[in-house]
Amino acid sequence: MQKISALLTFAVFIVCPAYAAEPVTSLTVMDHQITVRTVGQTDHVIAVDGSVLKHDTDNEQVGLLGPYTGQGHTYVLLAESAGGNACEMQFQAVDLTTSPARLSPVFGNCSPDVQVRIRAGALHVTTGGYTGRPSAGSPKISGETVVFGDGKFTPAR
After folding, report:
1. DSSP letters of 59-101?
2. Where exactly are the structural domains of the chain?
3. Which among 7, 32, 77, 108 is placed 20 to 30 Å from 52, CA to CA?
4. How many Cα atoms occupy the beta-carbon half-sphere of 126 within 13 Å?
5. Backbone angles phi, psi at 128, to 5 degrees
6. Can you tell me the distance from the alpha carbon of 29 to that of 5, in angstroms, rounded to the nearest whole number?
């Protein structure tokens, strides 16, 4: 019974919806401190161990989701929202396994729903389907899967 419980705990840790928790502004992960400091309404500085990783002036809100660890790799997601109701959320992945940390391009179909897996050391992120404004008859956009690892970013096929 303990083995089954341990396996279920491990499975939930590796594969979990990222939106289950609200994004935070600071995380300590594997001896690294990653922070989002907001200076103005659309002025955010994302830093790893005090070094600026990104200066974001495009979004109203930027937060951190994770960490996602497994197979010797550690990742965090930046959850970015420009505000309004046309596109709720997009993401960027931060690879904390390397020094300096690596940042993926922006991805996502505006859905705040994501599932995260680590497979072969790479981060696999799948977004949920999204309908921006159902009252206006917006079509549903299918989810997408992206893979980020070893500095390489690709849509999964």
Report:
1. -SEEEEEEEEEETTEEEEEEEEE-SSSS--EEEEEEE-SSSS-
2. 2-155
3. 108
4. 13
5. -80, 170
6. 25
Provide the pLDDT for residue 132. 66
Place of tokens 């002025």: 43
Is 127 exposed, middle or buried, given 0-12, 13-18 or 19+ CB atoms closer than 10 A? buried
C-alpha dihedral (33, 147, 153, 107), degrees to nearest 10:
-80
| The amino acid at 33 | Q
Provide the token pair at 147: 């893979």
Least Cα distance to 98 among 155, 53, 46 occurs for 53
Average pLDDT over residues 74-91: 88
Look up the pTM and report it. Answer: 0.81
| CA separation for the pair 58, 41 (Å, rounded) | 10
pLDDT band at 156 (very low <50, low <70, confident <90, very high): low
DSSP 7-42: HHHHHHHHSEEGGGS--BSEEEETTEEEEEEEEETT
What are the pLDDT digits (tens) for 112-122? 899 999 999 99
Residue (of 54, 99, 58, 57) closest to 77 by Cα position: 54
Please give the Cα distance from 107 to 89 (Å, whole number).
9
